[in-house]
Amino acid sequence: MLSLVSSSCGGSGGSCSSRLIAKSSCGRSRQSNHILQSLKGKSNSNQRRVASTTTTAAQSSNSSSNNNLPKWTLAAAFGLGATATAMLSSTNNNATNCEEGPPVTVLGLLKDIADKVTRLEATLGGSNKGSHHASSSTSSSSSSSSSRKNGIDIVLGGQWGDEGKGKLVDILSQEYDVCARVAGGSNAGHTIVVNNTKYKFHLLPSGMLNPHATCVIGNGVVVHLPSFLNEIDSLLQHKGFEDAEQRILLSDRAHLVFDFHQHVDGRLEARLGRNKLGTTKKGIGPAYASKAQRNGLRVGDLQDWPYFESRFRSLCQHHVRAHAGLEIDVEQQLAFYKSIADRVGKMTTDTIPYINHAFETNKRILVEGANATMLDIDFGTYPFVTSSNPSVGSVLTGLGVSPTKLRGIYGTVKAYCTRVGEGPFPTELDVQDEASPGYHMKTIGAEYGTTTGRGRRCGWLDIPQMKYSSQINGFTCLNLTKLDVLTGLDTIYVGKAYRDGDGNILEHMPANLRTLEGVTVEYEALPGWKEDISTVKTFEDLPPQAQAYVLRVQELIGVPIRWIGVGPNRLDVIDRGEGWDLNHS
């Protein structure tokens, strides 16, 4: 079925199809106005019920005082809740009063309510000593919360990895104070092109390209120190990165990947033969295994040499016993780690209080996710997954922050789909046949892994998979990358639904891989375009067919698309800005 959504969309002030609605400058959609009217009705009803208790006070106060009494104070007093309170506050005097940042907290509202009540009592001649005490205590407990505008924003992979997360992080990180990695290890890879210079990151956050950002390697990451230091040394060779090492903080709780972990990784993969998992052989799985078995070593252990040496010898003996034929030069390894202990020690710190203090002092924090949701050890196509949780939960456990500190969750998704390694891939195309769209995607998109150099498998965009990913992560908006790669295709297909062997539509992502491998994908066809879009800077300037594709994908996934990648360079991105949402009414 050919489906073309006609629309004229652009920045936050543009117009969209009937499925899209523009928001006001503070991000509230027109749908909220209907909610406000409903809430106002409830407020009026409640006001009538409490009229008898307020008549005397109203008569004692002049009309200007009553007009100055904010509606949100009444709303809170009438029990409409935090959501109604925040909405009604913005309607006072028919103006939209809002600050950029996360919504006002309940404690902040309680403080404001207490202050208003105190001033009202003073105006009416009342006295309530307890009110002042309550106001003061509330103020002391919530002063930072009520004034906070920043939060922790997260860039995550929505597919099977290699979506282009690093490029968005590089763009966003120019405005952030702290950039962090929270899971995985050197099995991740991001390539960023800046002024025709390629930068490849594996352990370091892409935020290193911002000379003013502090880069944090969180406790959830597993670190191969030789690779880590080589990556730093490589960056130091570029002009402008002389102070790079001083901007890196390495969690003392992060576990270490040793060379023998990598050897074991390769051995285990070789034993699987035709049933191999497609691991990068970077030792990530064995290192997490040591962590789970509680015999691993952490970065901070290196600063207590007798302890480190004793634990390292025991860990080596454990692996030699478990893997026949494995040889480890223990003395050589110990000599190496002793030689780098001081250098690593200067970067090592307890990153948990650092991150939380940064949050409390309104520092802007950006988390760079590694791998992707479909490689998550819990939610991915197990066992063809990585050994960590690349979904949103890893931010909490891998950085040491609470869920209340999270703000924007940005899902990154290619305009088509790729994966490296083994495992089911419902929308996969032939990448060998030169006449196949898959060959087009692989060659035009340069689909080769940053870490392994392996050619990637390519296929059409998979909507059921993306809806599943969005359900898990709660994406607030999407970053659609490599739209330019689809240029030149006459027809572009989107995998819209999975059907089982009986022709029934699957309403969820099956955990059983045999079921997933046996699905039939239902596709929707959209017209392609021939125009070069690599220099396009606004959504309106895209070819109509490209606009229609973006809008249809946005509609099917159910999450607004904010960023659109149109080329390989760091600035080849269209930012539609904040203020786009889907109409679920």
Explained architecture:
- The protein is an alpha/beta fold and 585 residues long.
- It is 39% helix and 16% strand.
- The protein contains 19 helices and 21 strands.
- It has helices at residues 30-49, 51-60, 63-68, 71-77, 81-89, 106-124, 129-147, 165-173, 225-236, 259-272, 284-293, 305-322, 330-347, 351-360, 393-399, 437-444, 463-473, 513-517, 544-557, and strands at residues 20-22, 152-157, 178-181, 190-194, 197-201, 214-217, 222-223, 248-251, 255-256, 348-349, 365-368, 406-414, 417-419, 457-459, 461-462, 477-481, 491-499, 520-527, 561-565, 573-575, 580-582.
- The chain has a 10-stranded mixed beta sheet, sandwiched between helices.
- A hairpin with a 2-residue loop joins strand 4 and strand 5 (197-201).
- The longest helix has 20 residues, at 30-49.
- The chain starts with 19 loop residues before the first strand and ends with a strand.
- Mean pLDDT is 79; it is low at 1-103, 125-148 and 581-585.
User: In terms of per-residue confidence, which ranges show pLDDT below 50 for 5 or more consecutive residues?
Assistant: 1-103, 125-148, 581-585
Number of contiguous helices: 19
Task: Tell me how many strands there are.
Answer: 21
By oligomeric state, this entry counts as single chain
Global structural class? alpha/beta
First and last CA, distance: 26 Å
What does the radius of gyration come to? 27 Å
Q: Any idea what the shape is? A: globular
How much beta, percentage-wise?
15-25%
Helix percent band: 25-40%
How would a crystallographer describe the biggest sheet? Answer: 10 strands, mixed
Rounded average pLDDT: 79
The neighbouring-strand order within the major sheet is 10-8-6-3-11-2-12-16-19-20
